[in-house]
Amino acid sequence: MSSAYDVLVLGGSGVDTIVYVPELPLPYADSYMIRPGIETRAGQTGDFVALGLRSLGLRTHHLDMIGDDPSGDLIRAFHRDHGIDFTDVLLPGGTKRAVNLVGPDGRRLSLYDDSRSQESDRLPESTVRALAAASRHAHVSITHPCAHALPLLHEAGVTVSTDLHDWDGENPYHEPFAHGADLVFVSTTALADPPAVMRRVLERGRAEAVVATAGAEGSYLLTRDAEAPLHVPAVTPPGPVVDSNGAGDAYAAGFLFGRLSGEPLERCARYGAIAGAFACTVPATVGAAVGRDALLAAASAGTEGGA
């Protein structure tokens, strides 16, 4: 029997306030005049992975905890406007939010409000089980409630991916995700020895592959039978780089599209690179992701990006 969804995305919903600053780090001053302005919009890691998957034609359902507040309304509208099925569970502390400072070169500094989550927050087991049973794959954000959902996903028999973001390879908080996923994404930003950390994830967990993203340097792919990570070059963005917000999420979506289409892992990484490059050309205040036809055309022609 075919599944209702290709991917179930768990966690990672929130609202960001985007502030474009003249430089990063931002020198102290009493005040700055900001252009093109300050804007609050829905979209954090889980939202953008879901958007990327939906734009690539994958049947996607997003499950997360958000507040009964104006920020939560923005998230519900985001999913409705982009045609993404969304199940929201009440988060008593209110919707998660952050402030993103974006420099002229597109680099980002994120300030996360860590006061919204509580130890007792949980996704309902019955809801997780029902959606997992209707899905081919689950992509899990590293938010607290999702760690408790991992065993339920394993019981359902779906494959699991996760993005550890800027993990340092040591923080124990990330380990349930690193060791409980079949496919692990991680940024090289805070890794002193990326190959060693990638190998350790493979040895201690269930992952068949670990992907370390390195921005303009491309990405690195390590599988269980490989002696060393394979370098996959970055691609040239199809337009000016204006914002790196969501580039990693877009990469993950592109990679998962390839994986669920049965493509070899190296080609999946190529898809990820194309999707991530496109994301860098989109302002954080705009919700847009590369489409299936553009991605496949760029990959097939060997050209970079694609609109």
From TrEMBL:
Domain (Carbohydrate kinase PfkB) spans 49-285
Q: Which PROSITE patterns does this chain map to? A: PFKB_KINASES_2
UniProt keyword list: Kinase, Transferase
- What InterPro entries has UniProt attached to this entry? Carboh/pur_kinase_PfkB_CS, PfkB_dom, Ribokinase-like
Instruction: Write out the GO MF terms.
Output: kinase activity
Q: Which domain of life is it from?
A: Bacteria
UniProt cross-references to PANTHER family, sorted A to Z: RIBOKINASE (PTHR10584:SF166), SUGAR KINASE (PTHR10584)
| Name of the protein in question | Carbohydrate kinase PfkB domain-containing protein
Q: What is the lineage of its organism?
A: Bacteria, Bacillati, Actinomycetota, Actinomycetes, Kitasatosporales
